[in-house]
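Assemble and predict.
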Amino acid sequence: MPPVIITTWKFGLAAAHTGWELLAQGAHALDAIEKAANVTELDPEVTSVGYGGLPNREGVVELDAAIMDGATHAAGAVAALTGIKTPISVARLVMERTPHTMLAGDNAKRFALANGFVEEDLLTPQSLARWEAYRRAQSASGPDVAHFDDLPETHDTIGLCALDRYGDLAAGCTTSGLAWKWPGRVGDSPIIGSGLYVDNAVGAAAATGHGDEMMRACISFRAVTLMEQGLTPQQACIEALRYLMRKRPPERCGLYGAAIIALRRDGVFGAAATCSGFHAPNRLWQWAVASEQGVQLLEGVYVTPDTVLPALSS
Ligand code: SD4
């Protein structure tokens, strides 16, 4: 089986590259997902994931992450984790060393520290300066920032799906969530079925965007289920978003961005995003693919509730 890894966003290129190198050397999909996600988590320039991620409204970086193994259907997640740079690796240990699927908050940190992780300051000078600017704007203009999607680079998750040479799939998701979120807010990313889902017999999916909307529609589970019903990965991504927009129409619920990537067990992949939130020149829906054909950055497709499904071609 020729391996392939897909990731959300342009900043996922480096992760895709690392994941692909591991897969090409014979790594299992689960290991490729974790190590690839770590690349983004540790990059201080990525302001929406791991170290350097923008904090909550009180200036605390709270991280959500999850990982899921197609071979065993096991999953692990952490929510509102503070002080640990690589939350997806903690999520993996939740999967492997506890009888549970998710640990949250201070007790997730206690678990991480007990398992050898080191507590570190996740704020960079840049993310601290942006939080201070947000605070100044708040005191000047009023109580709340309602439209997260209006703000550049205030959120974006790296979601990843991989297929290894043994025919096994895995998926991962890691994020600092929405900048300036309420303390304790948990988004879609660590929720199995929302931020990610994988069924080795079908395929994998991972999501990014406004989690408070997306988690109401379990869109990763939906995309995998749609593939199971015979839709292509591209069709499944489009249809999962059309479902979300039927239930939560942007004109009624406010503009929000939502995007999803999907990888079928035979290596065919697809992706889609809502127009609202993800099509402005400074906010294109881009995603990365790494395979034997090299590492590519792709854009689109953009979906509205009226989008017609493309013909079933692969
Ligand atoms: C969240 N889904 O916490 C994440 C953020 C994100 O593009 O992916 N934004 O809601």
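Residues 4-303 form a domain with the Glutamine Phosphoribosylpyrophosphate, subunit 1, domain 1 fold (CATH 3.60.20.30).
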